[in-house]
Amino acid sequence: MESLQVGVIGYGYWGPNLVRNLMACPLTAVAGVCELSAARRAAAGAAVPGVPILETVDELLDRPLDAVAVATPVTTHYALVRRCLEAGKDVLVEKPLAANVADAQALADLADRLGRVLMVDHTYVFSNAVRRIRQLVQAGELGDIYYVDSDRINLGLFQSDINVIWDLAPHDLSIADYVLGLQPRSISGWGCAHADPLIEDIAYVNVDYSDRLMANFHVSWLSPVKVRRMILTGSRKSLIFDELNTSEPVKVYDRGIKVSETTEDLRRFRVGYRTGDMWSPHVEPGEALRSMVAHFAECVRERCEPVSDGRMGVRVVRLLEAATRSTRAHGRRALLSQMDNLYV
Amino acid sequence: MESLQVGVIGYGYWGPNLVRNLMACPLTAVAGVCELSAARRAAAGAAVPGVPILETVDELLDRPLDAVAVATPVTTHYALVRRCLEAGKDVLVEKPLAANVADAQALADLADRLGRVLMVDHTYVFSNAVRRIRQLVQAGELGDIYYVDSDRINLGLFQSDINVIWDLAPHDLSIADYVLGLQPRSISGWGCAHADPLIEDIAYVNVDYSDRLMANFHVSWLSPVKVRRMILTGSRKSLIFDELNTSEPVKVYDRGIKVSETTEDLRRFRVGYRTGDMWSPHVEPGEALRSMVAHFAECVRERCEPVSDGRMGVRVVRLLEAATRSTRAHGRRALLSQMDNLYV
Amino acid sequence: MESLQVGVIGYGYWGPNLVRNLMACPLTAVAGVCELSAARRAAAGAAVPGVPILETVDELLDRPLDAVAVATPVTTHYALVRRCLEAGKDVLVEKPLAANVADAQALADLADRLGRVLMVDHTYVFSNAVRRIRQLVQAGELGDIYYVDSDRINLGLFQSDINVIWDLAPHDLSIADYVLGLQPRSISGWGCAHADPLIEDIAYVNVDYSDRLMANFHVSWLSPVKVRRMILTGSRKSLIFDELNTSEPVKVYDRGIKVSETTEDLRRFRVGYRTGDMWSPHVEPGEALRSMVAHFAECVRERCEPVSDGRMGVRVVRLLEAATRSTRAHGRRALLSQMDNLYV
Amino acid sequence: MESLQVGVIGYGYWGPNLVRNLMACPLTAVAGVCELSAARRAAAGAAVPGVPILETVDELLDRPLDAVAVATPVTTHYALVRRCLEAGKDVLVEKPLAANVADAQALADLADRLGRVLMVDHTYVFSNAVRRIRQLVQAGELGDIYYVDSDRINLGLFQSDINVIWDLAPHDLSIADYVLGLQPRSISGWGCAHADPLIEDIAYVNVDYSDRLMANFHVSWLSPVKVRRMILTGSRKSLIFDELNTSEPVKVYDRGIKVSETTEDLRRFRVGYRTGDMWSPHVEPGEALRSMVAHFAECVRERCEPVSDGRMGVRVVRLLEAATRSTRAHGRRALLSQMDNLYV
């Protein structure tokens, strides 16, 4: 079977990773790389001898391509993705899908209308650990989910065009979207800017899904230590995903509370605690980016919807936009109107 | 020198710890314990043979006492502390000082008016680790503080009269008060109730001190694992206090960002990262509760203000009250009017 | 039912712990404490008002006693235990049983002859974690045991009468004895002395049980960090006991090797690796010393053999003696003659 | 300046890493790769298009080369290295230098006689952490070294031609050689074989340097968890090197013992304990293999002795051989005759 011919736009921070994985994946080939910076074109040329390195998108789209992967700054996503879709290409785009909800929605709609595959590189959704967690949650292993708490903090890398929410929270928001499969009701943000007064470098994003389910995401570029930890507490069991614990990234705790209403007084609850075993399911090693690339190739070949399709892309952007707005309004909670078509 | 004769009211969860430390401290002696429950009186009698075990506060106050330690549920603090102060006793009371700001303020004012020592048992303020952290911060070792992030989470113990904010946040709020010595401008809370729909069992409390300094406190009774960790990020260095790491509870990181405005464009900042040594100062072992008891005895003897005096007690209660109110108003931020007399 | 009246000899480092647990255990009471040092007698008097504090063993044995607990330096064990046994008392003695094999054997024989209970306080044998590990091993959960590796290291406490092997290794040797239930074939020791040239302060003790099962115990008073970790590797699963991990002291790993002989060449083996789940069984909290005291009381009442009886005491002393001798002979391996009566 | 043209023999487990680093290093170029296996030649061809991939050493040596890197099984080292040296090439060879002391010594002597550079890839010697540790030790920061304890354990990878000592201990022995710079007096080994009865898969290697300095190395292919930890205890300070702690690989502890002889009794020592700060010096990130390759290129260019020269190679092989022999003689300690020329 023929390899999918993929053109890559952008060879900055993430582009090299994409190119490496597109070349390693047996389903895909890199048909060309375009990049504005001469220095980076030279780097690309050295890294992948034999692949055409181009300066403009025109030149890239003139070549025989099945699909395009866009790895440029988020503010350029809308124009580039639109152009590629209109040129009849299937598109893989770095997260987040676009710089605002309107643009993101327009891209998702356009892909639908044109019948093209549009996939957002929410890489975590393709990690074996997150897939395992989704299975456990969807199978009811944890019971009702009570809350989700996440820390995604480290020193750097400061971005000059987007704040820490737009930089780091797409990971957590896409994981929560994929694992929980629920519509958020409202969102708040708290944040603070230090290096550049216009760009928040620490933030807390709080999403509520129901009266009994809340998620909180702590993102920071200013932590002295790196932490990548998500806790999911459930009525039956609880789970911790610690990405930096490479040998045991997922731990499931058979611990929780037992609530019994007392008869004499409906307002009084007796709360007991259960403490049981801990279990860490084996997670197959394997690079998430490799699985992501393979999934894109399969969706293109089979003409089916990717897991991280345009609608997931819109859902994440909607939360990023609302969280940043709330942060700048001192944490004022933003209601998220029902957007049913986003959650089919 | 004579030991300070201290009467103890309440022999429930915390009372036995207080009694044990009052007996072990060479400056203090237990002159009597009063407790409503017959079962607990029996337990007290077995644990401290020779100490009078009484049923009512009247009986206790009839005995020759210098001071009283109140270790009862928070809703009873106001009446009990007031009564002891009016009986001419110096008072040590469990945290938080009272169940609302008005009561807390009234007690602090009453103690002032009567010239009695009123001390709140904000135990952490007396731990060697927190004292060391305060020295480092006050000496400017960390530079400007950028943010404070804290996790105080574990499974249980569910309280039936107060929510998790009132139960656990007094620790973090008193540590922040003591270490930073700053007036908060506003506070928000997010929380969720599961076991009892009226009592939040997880919460996030966010305090802002200035445009560039924010603190966030995560408290929970529903975490599968116990975490006690506070991060203080500063412009020069950062610090992590991990209470469960008994050998190295305090770690100071010589890491941070370097910001330089670029000339060509005032909106652009160049942000660099410094990564240097880590240093864990030795912290003398020693029970904080023992130091707290000794400090109370010294304040009584010397007639001076305790570190955790009534004003600190009021400041903490003010934040607890506002945080709970904000939590129930979907995170609406509460401005904290300047209360200058609280921060002298 | 009447409490067992226990007299305690020695109120130094361990004596207070014994006394506290004998008082807390509903099956036992402290009938008297004797101690040579006046300062320690005063401390005992303050700690346990109401209990007779005596100077000599004569005075203690004159009182109505069912049993005696001996918590004195190991060189005094033989004379004291013998005297108590001959006085018709059941005896609990601190580990190790005696300062040499001959003395230890004589005490075990004497207890047998007189029909008295002789129990050695090998405390770990009574910890819930070690009991759980024994169950797992004895049930074949780990398959054949391949090797045991242990670190018991920290800074201090330097002993002036015994080396680090006699101080720390009794814990590991008694755990191995209890968990494995096997007779060692030979033993070696490597060690080094620094503070006092005659007293080894670091040592490695290596015990072989068969051609395919070896145990290695690292004990040290000179480590900058405290480690308490034992690995048991088996043909089916492996296990780690980390005493300092209070929330998950026991972890069972479904990992190992798969060996298949290849047909073409009997000398060649194909070795594959299995990597599966990890599982941490819940271990009930509870002080091992309390269980030990209760077990002693039950054995006295029921006239039955303690788990850590005189024979286990002799087995441990035999290994300590041989290991120290090997250490001083540059690691020369000592064969352990079959002593069948020790392993009934 | 011209790049050093390096031919690579062997493209199995380690060869690809060498090739990648030789290509990335600006001082070196890969002039050809030879490999017996057709499958691996194909892999090499795909990985490094443009580099000649050859079948025989003859073909490789026929090409214009400055130096050769040998990455084949240890039993082939002697013949291959000898041939390359005799062909007038400088040689970099994988650890260990050869399969026995006689061969290793012969290679070192041959290189000396021919005036060729012979360097052994003891990679750790070029890691920034180990270099930092050497600086600290050589500067006397730790005082006198009291003992070295190391764990290098994990599950796999079982080798079919060498035991776990020859596989893993070269790392520890070369680190100790480099950091301490001392001549061992004697060596012992304990080990056990499980998968293949002729190949030890767990072992303890014990090296003594003096009456007060002993090192112990635990190596294993059968541990359920991966550990890479070395403790160096000194009279002034102690140090822990934990390679898996990527953020703080080196920790220096200001802890130790204070010994004072007492006057009344020369046999009695008073031992006190100091507990002070811990300090983790920043270690620059950077791949050790890259530094190793650059060092080889510099030594070739400057015609100077590598840090890990043939003599270090012989010293390590001598210990591996003696340790294995001791292991098979039940731990019988092997005296290491003074080989002064090895320690110049």
Keywords:
homotetramer, 344 residues, alpha/beta, Rossmann fold, Dihydrodipicolinate Reductase, domain 2, nine-stranded mixed β-sheet, six-stranded parallel β-sheet, 15 strands
Task: Please describe what this structure looks like.
Four copies of one chain form a homotetramer. With 344 residues, chain A is an alpha/beta fold. Chain A has two domains: 4-121, NAD(P)-binding Rossmann-like Domain (Rossmann fold); 125-287 and 320-335, Dihydrodipicolinate Reductase, domain 2, CATH 3.30.360. Helices cover 33% and strands 31% of the residues of chain A. Chain A contains nine helices and 15 strands. The first copy, chain A, has helices at 15-24, 38-47, 57-62, 77-86, 101-114, 128-138, 164-180, 288-302, 310-328, and strands spanning 4-9, 28-34, 53-54, 67-70, 90-94, 118-121, 145-155, 186-192, 202-210, 213-220, 222-234, 238-242, 250-261, 269-280, 334-335. Chain A has a nine-stranded mixed β-sheet with strand order 14-13-12-11-7-10-9-8-15. The longest helix of chain A has 19 residues, at 310-328. The two termini of chain A are 33 Å apart. The mean pLDDT of chain A is 93. Chains in contact: A-B, A-C, A-D, B-C, B-D, C-D. Chains A and B meet through strand 7, strand 8, strand 9, strand 10 and strand 11 of A and strand 7, strand 8, strand 9, strand 10 and strand 11 of B.
